[in-house]
Structures are given as structure tokens and as C-alpha cells.
Amino acid sequence: MNGLFRRASVREAPSKHAQRSNDPSCRGPAKSRSRTAIADFDGNGKLYPQRGHYTQMIFDQPRCIAENQDRSGERQELIATLAKVFRLSFPSLRFRIFDRIAAINAQASVRDSLRSVDIFGGLAFNPAVDHDGLVFAYLHEAGHHLSKGCRHPCNQQIACDCAADCWAVTEGRAKLAENNCEFSLTIALTQLERAANLNKRSSSKQAPRRCAYSNWVERKRSLLRGSVIPKQCGLF
Fold first, then answer.
1. CA angle 229-196-165, nearest 5°?
2. What CA–CA distances, in Å, run from 75 to 40, 71, 192?
3. What is the pLDDT of residue 178?
4. How far, in whole angstroms, is CA 24 from its chain's centroid?
5. Paired sense of beta strands 94-98 and 114-120, if any
6. Whole-prediction pTM
């Protein structure tokens, strides 16, 4: 996993239905010529469309698609406000919204030394996810870039999920609080669990273990308990 859920490539979504993500095995950076229309924020926090490539993710279920989205003015204001405070808190990163991707997911990506945090529209505009869930999602992705913890075996430029989670609730949380942005971890995890139906999507006991936090129930328990992260990524 290189994001809230796991790495996958996502093609441009049709007008009302999102293209389902592929879920390649761990073989290094994905190479794809597919492009996607996305939305980004300008200097005033307003959404504007552009096109681009991206690579990697936060949850282990990238195919989970949001059926309903909240595109109200209040919601857009919340997203714009978070974008501003995260840019202020972590100026070395680029924060974007992949507006037309309906997958309930997010990703950390590196391209040409440019580090980005990308939130998919299915998560950004999900009515089950409010301030707390979005803040944690942003922090987790930022943690892939800024954590000094164990590296991801498939991409040494970013930290593994366990290290990203730990950074999010420690260093990242503290830095964000300096700019008067706080969140409840319990509420955040509950919102994300409900939105992506994670409580019914735990890793199979027969499936190979991909990461220390590949099982949502264990991951949630570790986060709430403040468990120490492993020194070496469990992904293989």
C-alpha cells in the first residue's frame, strides 16, 4: 500500500460511472499512458480542471466506488480550507483533488521529484466523511512522503503504510495543530470505515500478508492504541 488503500491505476471516468481501478502486484512503479481529468485548487482555493498522471494509494480496496457525493458549496469550502492549511503546514508537498475519480481512495505519488498528495473525488465528496476523516486521509498520504520510518519495498522514495500512519498521528498531527487544524482520530477512522465499508473488507487469512496494516481491524486497533510501528515493512 502506498496510500490509504493500495496501489492501483485508474483511468478517466465516464460522466456518471467511474472506471474501476486495476490492482497490479508489487513490481515497482506502474507505467501507464492513461490520463485522467482532475480538479486542483488555485491560489485562492478555487477548483479548476487540469490533466495529469498519478500512481499510488491509501486503502486496500481501490475498487470501492462512491454512489453518492456531496458537491455542495459548503463541502467545496471545507475542501478548499483543508487544502490551504495543508499547503501552509507542509509546503514541500502538492495537494490535489482527482475530482472525477469516484473511487473512495487517496494516494501519495512522486513524479520528476515532485511529491503529491491526491484525494479522489469519491473520498473528497463522500457524505460519510467529514473534516476528521479528510484530515487523517491527507495526513496519512503526507506521511508517505515525510515520515522517516521504514521504506516501502516497492518504492524506496516513500514510507510504508505503517510508518505513514504513525507519522500522521504524531509529527503530522502536531505540525497541523500549529496552524489551528485538529481532528479526532476515533471519529476519522469511523468515518473512513463507514465510507469504504472497511469493517467488511478485512484481509483474507489465506491471502499473503502485504503490510503490517493490511488488515483494517488490526490497523485501526494499532492506531487507537498508539502501537509502535515495525522497523521493517512487512510487505512482500
1. 15
2. 15, 6, 16
3. 97
4. 18
5. parallel
6. 0.75
